[in-house]
Amino acid sequence: MSISDGATQTSPCPKATWTRAFGGNWTTGDPEYPLIADYNIAAGDKRHLRDSDTNELLPITLEAGYILSIISIGYTVTQDLMVYLYADSIACISLGVTSGGSAVYENKLREFSTTWYDPTAALPHTIDIIAYNKGSDPMYGAVGILCIVEALGTPPWPTTKECFCPYCNHKQTEPISATRITCQGCGKEYMVTNFASLRELGG
């Protein structure tokens, strides 16, 4: 998903701030819940995290005029884990290394921010976050990363978003506030988040 940039402004408008969350959830299958499939990271393999607003796999493109900063990271997994953030296919930032069976939550103060490389938000940036299973067995658990996005001199958050079905990968346009989505492709229901309502926090 691209965080859409609007027309160039001749003077900065008030800063708007909202949250974005990226995560991965790797679950064991249970016959009691047939819609929840067994989904893991194989030993020695990796998976991209997802944008929780849309279910889209990273990377995303952060358009010019926006700043993204990580403020908290949490993970609990059954195998040894490494989490890396890649910015513009150039910079690689380690967001965490932990052993299997650990549960970690950390409040961060600028663990990563695009202002490190682009203080004025003059350029677009590609952001990717990947979880690596460094253990000897399939990995189950979760990783969650909470970010603040700041709009500098740009219009408000868009009114719609593109959502991706986790069952058939169908893509459809929904209101930005939508959380329960009925797929127009396969008819199944899935859920996404609505953090856009928190946009004025810290603004």
Descriptive overview:
The protein is mainly beta and 203 residues long. The chain has a single domain (2-155), classed as Sandwich (Jelly Rolls), CATH 2.60.120. Helix content is 0%, strand content 44%. The chain contains no helices and 15 strands. It has strands at residues 2-3, 16-26, 46-48, 50-51, 60-62, 66-77, 81-87, 91-98, 103-107, 125-133, 141-151, 160-164, 171-175, 180-182, 189-191. Strands 1, 3, 5, 7, 8 and 10 form a six-stranded mixed sheet that branches. Strands 4-2-11-6-9 form a five-stranded antiparallel sheet, with no helix packed on it. A hairpin with a 6-residue loop joins strand 14 (180-182) and strand 15 (189-191). It is globular, with a radius of gyration of 18 Å.
Beta-strand residue fraction: 35-45%
Kindly report the average pLDDT value: 85
- Which structural class is indicated by helix and strand composition? mainly beta
> In which range does the helix fraction lie?
under 10%
CATH domain class name: Mainly Beta
Unreliable runs, pLDDT <50, ≥5 residues? 1-15, 198-203
Tell me the CATH topology: Jelly Rolls
Shape: globular
**What's the number of structural domains?**
1
Spatial separation of the terminal alpha carbons: 23 Å
Number of helices: 0
Reading the helices and strands in chain order gives EEEEEEEEEEEEEEE
CATH architecture: Sandwich
Rg (CA only): 18 Å
Tell me how many strands there are: 15
